[in-house]
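@channel sequence for tomorrow's demo:
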Amino acid sequence: SELRYALRGLLRRPALAIVTIAALTIGISANAVMFGAVNQLMLQPPAYIRDPGSVRRIFIQQHLDGKPTGGTTEPYRLFAALRAAPAFSDVAIYSLSFFTMGHEPDAQLVSGAVVTQNFFRTLGVQPAMGRVFLPEEDRPPRGPLVAILSDGFWHRVFAGARDVIGKTVSLDDKPFTIVGVMPAGFTGVERYPMDVWVPMSAVTAEHVGEDWATTPDSYWVQGVARVRPNETVALAERQATTLYRNEIRSWNHSWQDSTGVITLGSLAAGSAPMGLSPEASVAVWLFGVSTIVLIIACANVANLLIVRTIERRREIAVRMALGASRGQLLRQLLVESALLAGIAAVAALVVAQLGAGLVQRVILPRMSWDGSILDGHVLVFTLLIALLCIFLAGLAPAVQAASTSVNENLKASSRQVAGGRGLLRSALLAMQVSLSLILLIGAGLFVRSLRHVTQRHVGIDIDKVVVVTPTHRRDTPEERLGQWYRAAHDRAMSLPGVERVALVGSTIPGRTATGWSITVPGHKAVEFPGGGPYFTQAGSDYFRTMGTRIVRGRGFTPEEERGPSRVMLVNSIVADAYWPGGNAIGQCVKFSDDKACTTVVGVVENMMLFRLVNDDRASIYVPWTHPEFKNATASGMVVRAHANGEQLAPVLLPAMRTVAPLMPFVSVEPYTQIVAPELRPWRLGATMFSIFGILATIIAAVGLYSVMAYWASQRTHEIGVRMALGARAVDVVRLLARHAGRTVGAGLAVGTVVSFGLARGVADLLYDTSPREPGVYVLAAAALALAAVVAIIVPARRVTGVDPATALRSD
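structure tokens (generated this afternoon):
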């Protein structure tokens, strides 16, 4: 009966019900989706791993200039040495990779990993079909060609055939025998889509070299370890750190760094000992933002319900006079709130299902999501949110109604409203304004950061340059490679829209990098932050093609490109390290085991190498015909567009894939796409903060409108008296604005103070932007003030349009 009565009450006031349900739907769905994303990123390990708490990623953490830094990529032999730690039952080594299946123009790029044979045993995963790798299938330097397929690849390429075991798949022009198929949804340690896993010894010799298992100079693999059941992670870290330091000293006797330690991180996608990844950090902040939206929605609903309860106070008084107890009345009002929250929760799940796919594509588009992020945990979370909304939004008006005096309410006129009730509504409204301001300030800070990072010059004209990289086997004859590059160069230059083309070797910024040792006579060796210097072979047109400025001296001449020539360019980091004061031109540099000098003829600006920001790396450049590297081949080609690289890429790709002789696979990527993953945290923050900020502002504006409309209706008689005595419409509007201004002003003041307090927490997510940027705060406050003005206009026009005589007769 109480439920039917509550439903009839909602149908009598459909506008109030729609606004209330819409506000709660927005708050609950936003929280459900963001909790689902954070749950996948932060709390859930990859699928199928047995006892995932015992399986740990191996991080090498160091302190440079008092700040923690480090990573997961090291030489194979270092991770192999960690197997001697008694606290580990297994240490597996792996490296993400790509393989080519087929040939152009029908070639496909296949994602996968090269792994040690104990990889699946370490994770505790069994294949759905077939077997895992055997010890004899992974013995350096070369082993048999076998492969394990992912479930998705098996269905996509082999149509899910049950007799796939024993068949072959061609990867990089080699036949790999299929020995197993993994369960659906398994991706290994990483959460990126996987197609195949192959033993490390099957392919590594061709890509890294015959000494890949023993060389200390090749940083290309990652490690994962399983801690024994009765051992602690802290003990395993201490044992692994000792082995790590001893192993480095065994190949570098002068190594004295005692800051390096092994840290074991969980398998959560967003976790790292040095802190959360940028995308995970933004996701956590967005979960907090969605919580703010929910609080705003609950405050708005509470305000609406308080107004509705005040309007019903005579009805409530009559029911109490007829014998209804305060407990029955409280229960009835809570049932009405529960009905609203229940409808909103169902609607929120529908909205969340639509929004979940968008969030999965936006937050981590390269991540392999195991189904929808709206799993059982999220459903329970949504139910708890709905219950919280019932409590927050419905309890205050219900208690207030149940505690009213029957006699006072029976005698009260519609404009007699207790001051305490108005104070509560004003406090809730001020809270909505302050929280909306926080979100708008966050949106402004991320938008400003995004603008700064996209406008930052990184030594490359990102908007105009396209990278062409062919995939080929290590044993491809140099003559064939040279023929392809010459033909590709000429074909690209013949295309409309192409301004310049240059071949590049060894290092392609954003894609590949090769370090090289140098010595400078009369100077001590310099240890550059981030390693290096990194070495690039380039032609005379390379710097003009990339848009890299030569700040001192000159570039390579065509004669030096045809060589042989012992000349080089260095970037500003190298020049400042060895020759501070700007006298690098004409200096002598020697390469390892090279007795002759190479003369510095120019200094170029610093160019991005691995990352878009905070990536100042030492770099050196030599012409193709330098005597020490004259037999090297190109690693790729950079193409400069007259106007826009993204518009040129669709034209360039088919042209490159038809160049003979055919390469197995050719990739064409504008630099805007290469740097896009790094821009994603700022884009994500700017987009989601803006969306949530706008939603919060709309909800707050609706709340302000409802409060002002009710306040104006309660003072219709007073306003009629004022207008009868000569008050103008502008005076009435000023009265409304003064009443709203106190509430909005209080909310803006509190929001500004809270934003200043939260500024330090968001500072690391911003780029070249102060978290206390005055302009952002002023614009956000102005936007909210404008929304408040709009929310006041409608009730102001309505009350000033009432005939004074009618207003005087109103109750």
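heads up for whoever presents: Residues 523 and 578 are 7 Å apart (CA to CA).
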